[in-house]
Amino acid sequence: MKRIILALLACASVAGAEERRSGLLDMRPEAQAMQRDDSMNPGMLWVLDGEALWGRKPTPATQSCADCHGDAAVSMRDVAARYPAFDIARGAAIDLAGRIIQCRETRQGAAPLAREGQELLALTSFVAHQSRGSPIAPPDDAGMRAARAQGREIFMTRLGQLDLSCAQCHDDHAGQRLAGSIIPQGHPTGYPIYRLEWQGVGSLQRRLRGCMVGVRAEPFAYGSAEFMAIEAYLMGRARGMVLETPAIRP
Amino acid sequence: MARVLLRVPNTAEKGSVIEIRALIQHVMETGYRPNAEGVLQPRDIIWRFTCRYDGEVVFSASFSPAIAANPFIAFTTIATQSGPISFTWEGDNGFAQTETRHISVT
Amino acid sequence: MNITRRVLLAAPGALLLPAPARADQQRLAAALRDFTGGQPMREGRVRLDVSPLVENGNAVPISVLVETPMTAADHLRRIGVFNERNPQPNVITAQFGPRSGRAYLATHIRLATSQALVAVAEMSDGSFWFQRVEVIVTLAACIEG
Fold first, then answer.
1. In chain C, which residues have their Cβ closer than 8 Å to the Cβ of A211?
2. So what's the ipTM on this one?
């Protein structure tokens, strides 16, 4: 299997891209149109769900997101572009979904939202959508620099029975073809994404787990420190690229 | 209630052709897919979509399991008069939902 | 051109295909007969727009546009879209009338594999028109966890 994949990588004809490039541009025009026009983009259904949740109290006694944060178009503008961020209380990096879970538990006193559950995906999509069109701007504090360094190390490490690192595909062979599909550079510009293969919306961590299963590795757990580190590294690698949430991907 | 995203013009000139787009959140489970245990998951689709303009049906469609998850449909109609334009989706397991928008025709 | 070749060309296309393809053709032909009530179909007036190469068959944008004045006397009644190799041949059937303004429909469909799509239009004079389009569906490279 590994030999087949390496052979496919080797015989791919397209030259590796030199400039950073969103996976949006690797899709056929019809799929790009689906992302660019909200009226055709099913990811917008999750954004609308998130908007409704934003204004709803999780329990009658508590506050809604809007009670504290007001109009998300103002208060959440560009916020997703700065995640993952360093959470001083925990002394660790936290991603946007993790911050929403934390807020839910500590500020709203409600049951935590499950990773990859529809409510969390909807709220994360809605909040990230407020940064659509904004450049990715990772924070440059010492904590996040350390997380990015750890993430870079994981990105470069060979994993699984196929003994492949993220970098071997997404740095060294991006733009080439693996079977019928173009290998993207792997910039997380549109998460949560509506992935055609999933027929629904999912997180970057779900996508990373899919890749890990693909190389026959044991995937990291949702919300794990490893995933926070990889997310931090990938967002740093994509610094300045424009956020697209909700993106469409094949 | 399933989340719906409709694109209907708020206003239109009398006699003009308007394009309507409708997107609804639905799994459109085909009935042909096995689950993790290898058992076929029962069919759960929307099979009928109807658009009424001031009560009169101006467009309708029958969906099969070949319609993608979160069904999208686009079509046109003539802006005849101001009034409600309603959209009804019907499907398996008693699924039924209607949304209404108002159009002003001048 | 020799006799054998001429005979083969004159024969129904299905005879030239291997057995599974022939079964697909027969199923598609039966679905088309259901739609037309056995009336003849002519090629033309229907434009079925779909990308000839699709990277994921789960949501394939298609549109159908039919040439017609869309008047009370002369308009499109129905569009049917059919496929060759999904588990069942029907995709969508839609009803139109003079109030439609344009004979137009767009949706997102599923394609299980590379195959032909056929769009058929029934006009108010009872005539049937069609276009057939071949679509190649490429496979996704990664294995989903």
1. 142
2. 0.95
